[in-house]
Queue: 2 jobs
Job 1
Amino acid sequence: MQQRTLNSRLIMAIFATGLMSFAGVVVETAMNITFPVLMRQFHINTGTVQWLTTGYLLIVATFVPISSFLKRRFKTRNLFLTANLLFMSGLIVDSLAPSFSLLLLGRLIQGVATGIALPLMFNIILEQAPLDKIGLLMGIGTLVTAVAPALGPTYGGLIVSNLQWRDIFMFLIPLLLISLVMGLFTIRQVSETSTAHFDILSWVLIAATFVSLILGLSNMSHVTTNPWPVIIGLLIGLIALIAFAWRSNKIDHPLINLHVFNQPVFSWHLLAFFLLQITALGLSFLLPNFLQLVNGKSALVAGLVVLPGAALGALFAPLGGTILDHFGPARPILVGATCQFVAVFAMALLTDHLSAGMILSWYLLYMFGTGLAFGNIMTTGLKSLSDQQQSDGNAVYNTVQQFAGAVGTATVSAVVALTQSGATHTFTFRTQLGTQRGFAVLAGLLLINLFVLAYGLRLNYKQNND
């Protein structure tokens, strides 16, 4: 095994894969800011337009689970090249799309690329970084998935207010080109590839799980008039998930080694990670639309309101990782998770009087907590696994992250759409009430998350001190 050293080549490789992943994540929430514009241009409603995010996340969540197989079967540089070229193709399709269906197609192509790209960055860190720097580098790596969703509305708002929404895609192409050149010169192969077995049926079952569950959640806005799509979607999803778990434990070469769940520290931190990602993408949907549809702000202002929070999260993510490297996970994770809960609970409590300035302040607190907790939860969970299980654990985390994002977007959009469909009061009032209910749901999940983390960290402490 090659010696783990933190040199300029490793840093540039992480940056190259991170830049590609950043483009994939930032465009998720950049599109949220354009939803009112797209709804008018393509004559679609809230439930339809949210598929630009939900559909994208579903594709990502379908491809991330096979990242462990791809890592064993193909060279890292070839995977990087494939993802980069696919992403640029999707961006070009979206920048030229004359209809909503083609716009969605471009987003799905980008989803395939991001599904391949996201695990690459974390696999490089876990496989090549010095052990005493993993917390720091994972903190920097999770900037992509923790801060990029917050930067998206600002980026989208700047574009929509000054140019056309199509330029959101065009301006990302230079980033992909920089990433491409940098990655081809710095990404190296440190582990041998092998002719790994690919179980197609397991992959189909994973896809069926995610698609069915999200379809069920996405139809929640019609649950009072037609509950069957919700019931059937959730039922099929659960059956497919059980079938996938059963098959994975029966075959010799499972798509994902589910034995990682035998490690309680991993499982409890994964659950916390899932809950946090639901709130992150849920807020990324709620805040831009509330600022525009309720407070009457422009897309640019809506984006700028969340920018300070994104910057603070970017500052504290690597700092949180450094705190973990020196003092352990409990302090940064519990402080961060508490700040997140307080911020979202306050927004739920004060929705009737929630000005742009108040949103900015509470979102600062939320992103401060995100910077401290988010990456450290993933790092702590993965550290509980053996070296042989790292790529499987990474695949599970990235899969759950994207699925949670889809759940968060679908759930809060359904809550808002269901409230908007009421016959009483104005549309603005109904949107405000729906947003308040969305905040309440997210605050409840964050409260549950505090108890999950307290138990998971206790198990981690016992494991490391026995």
Job 2
Amino acid sequence: MPDFSLDRDQQFRQMREVAREIFNAALGNASIESAFTRHVHCERRVLRIGEDLHDLDSYNRVFVVSIGKAAHTMVAALEARVGGTIEGIVASPIEAAQIKGLRYFWGGHPVPNKESVQAGAAILKSLAALDAISLVIFLISGGGSSIVEKPLDDQIPLVDIVETYRLLVHSGAPIAEINAIRKHLSAVKGGRLAQAAYPAQQVSILVSDVPDDTPDALASGPTMPDSTSVYDCERIVAKYDLFAQLPKTVAELFQQHALEETPKSDDPAFIRARWWTVLSNKVALDEAAAAATGAGFAVEIDNFCDDWPYDKAADYLLSRLRGLRSKVSRVCLLSGGEVTVAVRDGGVGGRNQQFALAFAERIANENITVLSAGTDGIDGNSDAAGAVVDGSTVARARNLRDVTIQQALEGFNANPLLTSLGDTVVTGPTGNNLRDLRILLAY
């Protein structure tokens, strides 16, 4: 419980720590291990995933494909329950302890690398060898879009795919729009892994970093029917004025209207396919809410600004917080999902640090503390997960004299300033990925 008898500087320091504690509690309690404990069981070789039962001995082959930032954690949780040797492929952006029987690839993030393409080719080849009495278990988490890749058109080189990804990520487009285009350029996205695995029985276990109403955006939906279309891709390219910036090999596909449509819900590939979301941003929010309540705050959750530009989201959430604060002495406003940043310069930081620093300007000298961080432990191109700021940030930043908050924001270079202040949130890669959390405290 916060001690509100402290002087103001001590209160600011204490509340920054309280915000960190709430975030860490959410990370710890919304873990993959706890999610598998709730949703995945195996007894006497009968595997229960959600409401589905799979007698593992009834299949002539069980193959596991684990992709994304949580690939290692998910496959370890599955292996602990199934026991014995499992076979399959793991593609992740980080190295970790390897499990016997699995092949490992170190795919790139936020853009694909050579191993991303090698992983995509290896997965497609392995799935093609499965038959109707095989079971494939897909373990899918955020980041999979770049970690596993293979262009649908072999004439598109990796360097052009990387440049296309870069343009999309920096465009300010929300993840669902970015992934719509990725799907239509890829041999592994937008349901195409499901097509490759057909006629095998398929089950996908999802740790989601996308909005709940667009599950096929997770890792660009490799095993799910695609809800987006070629028309959507053409509209998105026009909306963000990307056509003239696209590499020639990709631009020609749009110019010639040559994009191939992705498989939809009536495709035979999905007849024997099931999907279970075992962990999502909602779980992280619920755990943060429990921690904030325990710290003595009245709690409200508001995700209305999901996928908004960071500055517009900051204005909206501050207005909501002030409105709540007028009715309650100590309030915690929680917001999940992501904000967008249209990057124009090559600074160091990410959307969470940009959001936090923009918020600091708006709350100078107020009794407000704001933490914004990614549950994967990675914010943009920095080593931080995000940052925590408060009513003292602006005054403390003035004492640095090296750079102003405005200069840092304009240069998309929030990390050096926040690091100098000691206000970054650094967790290291968490092995999980449930989108971002924003924790706003008023007292």
